[in-house]
Amino acid sequence: MSEDVRVEVGLGERAYDILIGPGLVARAGAEIGRRLPGIRAAIVTDENVAQRHLEMLKTGLDRGGIASSTIVLPAGEKTKSFAALQEVVDGVLAARLERGDAVIAFGGGVIGDLAGFAAGIVRRGMNFVQMPTSLLAQVDSSVGGKTGINSARGKNLIGVFHQPKLVLADTAVLDTLPIREFRAGYAEVAKYGLIDRPDFFAWLEANWQEVFAGGPARIEAIAQSCRAKADVVARDEFETGDRALLNLGHTFGHALEAAVAYDGARLVHGEGVAIGMALAHRFSARMNLASPDDAARVEAHLKAVGLPWRMADVPGGLPDADALLSFIAQDKKVSRGALTFILTRGIGQSFIARDVPVSEVLAFLKENHPG
Amino acid sequence: MSEDVRVEVGLGERAYDILIGPGLVARAGAEIGRRLPGIRAAIVTDENVAQRHLEMLKTGLDRGGIASSTIVLPAGEKTKSFAALQEVVDGVLAARLERGDAVIAFGGGVIGDLAGFAAGIVRRGMNFVQMPTSLLAQVDSSVGGKTGINSARGKNLIGVFHQPKLVLADTAVLDTLPIREFRAGYAEVAKYGLIDRPDFFAWLEANWQEVFAGGPARIEAIAQSCRAKADVVARDEFETGDRALLNLGHTFGHALEAAVAYDGARLVHGEGVAIGMALAHRFSARMNLASPDDAARVEAHLKAVGLPWRMADVPGGLPDADALLSFIAQDKKVSRGALTFILTRGIGQSFIARDVPVSEVLAFLKENHPG
Questions:
Q1: Most buried among A78, B21, B267, B299, using CB within 10 Å?
Q2: Number of structural domains chain B divides into
């Protein structure tokens, strides 16, 4: 009937489906009701998403016979707080939902992380459904079961692993995203190619314009990304090993985000990851691990799609190399003067490097610093 | 070397040991360090326990080379709150502990539930060590991985399953407990006999005075209780079936606690469970499921140890039978006029009864109401 693509996340008794296709918001009641018959639901969303899409979701749930209440929160990273967590938990309990009922996260990564955390702790774990409305959330945060909020001492330091029962990724709602946000999400799509799928990266180089335009190529890119992440997560659900590969580009990226004090007007997460991936490839070339041609290829693709790819692309300037290094060291455990990085031997050949000398990182930052 | 009794909780890769014996607080560093080498720890405790035993624990940890910080909270059920949870989480993060470091719960059930919850959500799950200092916590809340806090809408509605790596039950610290608190904990010890260990119940009838006095009989009673609970938990870690047997006496008991507005001066949890167990046996006899002689035997034993065993034993009077029923119905899902209760066919033969008519419960409450 529908043209949805289905990706299965193989986690034994916690296995679940990701459905990807246009119009899934309107069909949510049918898809959820088929898998979780007779439930009621609490929708957790933000003001922006509610304004654009909530009515369609309510109608879609009604059609499937699912009664629902709604908890609307302010949009933005500040919502990943203890106060918002308590608000969601209280709202779910006020709706008198039982363990077998569902919390539905309807929004981007912030809403998914917060609502998933709430679902994981109300009655020691309720059913949870992800309905990601940003490209970033569809290909990254909605897959893998990580949930959480921020602490004054760092991002995502408080949370649980709580797998959803179902992920519904409506590819049509992405048309309402600002282009800058879509692009930032695309950085994580490209990441999966760079980690271990060279053919997918080559396909993106040839087809990225169709992915941005919408239609089958977009669905295919999202499905490939979910499959890639699901493979890694199935191998390492609780992040004790291989899952660290998903951090490709994130060490440099987080340092840049921290350096602009998480000011989204200057740099959003996906943009930080884009620059971080380019730097990880360039640094790998400098360490004679990969060819400079591969670094150039990554830089060229990011540039082509309109993503930032070098430190000079961060508007407003950056602190000096020593300061950037201290942001990296803050993010990571520095053991005996060495850092853990995701480095690469070429396109689609990334690996976990556990003994990267701090001195090399500092020299690299100095060479590539725009200031 | 030591005379500790060891009980293993068989949960596959989450299996852990319970050590039971005198002096374990002073030996904590050695026992923890043997299993979790090189860690640091955050001790979570309350003001009463800190005053009596914290110095000995700090010394014990120091001796094992375990550096520790301490978070001290007010004693009492009100500490199972969102605000206290945030305080513990912030304290653990402020101590810069990593996932492989440990949160140590040093106190009764309130501290264990709260600290376990914090350990379950900091960095999506840190190592956790239970050091229960009340009899109730040693035989009940420290075994099984349930953690949580209370909501305005009910007790323990928010939490996670998070198994400890080790439980150290120091039987000597129980000597500092008020006798009323020790007795209340003893109700849960007797419960394990009544659930499915008739020989243990008979042993308690013969030996309860030695259990109260301390020494080997106390260690034996605690070890038997932990074994009994560990067996149930190993069969049903996430409470989807058999684990409900542990609620013997709790349906009536919770209703009585609610009826006195959780006023511990009138009725503490274990006392409610004691009356609840006697009522469950008497009600089972009334339903012709068990012999009235068994109900009389339970009542006689509770009376002998000084525990309350009938509704008339609650000081200050109780609301009428209809009101008590509404507290029961609030606690449970009432489906089609029927309630789920733990009933029994005799001593050590309890079972889950899913279709208990509300009308029978009401009639029983009226017959047994003191007012």
A1: B267
A2: 2
